[in-house]
Amino acid sequence: MIIKTCNLTKRVPSADGELVILENINLELEEGRSLAIVGPSGSGKSTLLGLLAGLDSATSGEVFLNDHPLHDLNEDERAKVRKENVAFVFQSFELLPGLTALENVMLPSELKSNPEAKERATEYLVRVGLNNRLNHYPRQLSGGEQQRVAIARAFACNAKVLFVDEPTGNLDNKTGSRISELLFEVNQESTNALVVVTHDVNLAKKCDDQVELSEGLIT
Q: What is the pLDDT of residues 25-69, one digit of tens each?
């Protein structure tokens, strides 16, 4: 299993006492498969994504990422596991404003001393339809174009698990459909796993597995 959780729970303090975000989440995902996390706003989808990826720590329970026990690791140790195993597409894109689209996509591969960083970055920017935007800075790109840069950057990492938060949220229907197709193309080209948080019913149906959350529970 590339991902496995056992009774994963997340609680946070609030003015009214302890707030349960997620409770007793149990799931498994095999290499090469895709998982959609669906549910209404506030159901805990993004929180679960963060726990699975090691961006946050659980209150209790266990989460294993590529056999690494994230629940037993400190932040520095989790950061090392993330660097070696995962790539992300966040809703906020997280592009560096001082780098061009090409440089943003190259950066993770360069940090791993990949000699093919520029070649891979160019390939995926072309695949997401941005071959005419390679040397543009984020401020020169629309929201949808910035999102496609973020997706190309995640693809170029060739990570064990690709975590994607609302990949079609800022895109028009045509571009959103193309990005959805591309997510599964890349997933099928490799043994990488794909985890998607989405409100897009059609995108969720394309995934091998689905987890539906409601008020922090799997329904």
A: 999 999 989 999 999 988 999 999 999 999 999 999 999 999 999
Which tokens in the block code for residue 133?
A: 């935007």
Which residues lie closer than 8 Å to 182 by C-beta, 6 or more apart? 127, 128, 151, 155
For residue 3, give both structure tokens.
């991902």
User: Torsions phi, psi of 145, nearest 5?
Assistant: -70, -40
Q: How many CB atoms lie within 10 A of CB 28?
A: 14
What predicted TM-score, i.e. pTM, was given to this entire model? 0.86
Which token pair is 142? 């629309």
Number of residues in the chain: 219
The 8 Å CB, 24+ separation contacts for 116-124 are: 117/156, 120/156, 120/158, 121/152, 121/153, 121/156, 123/156, 124/151, 124/152, 124/153, 124/155, 124/156
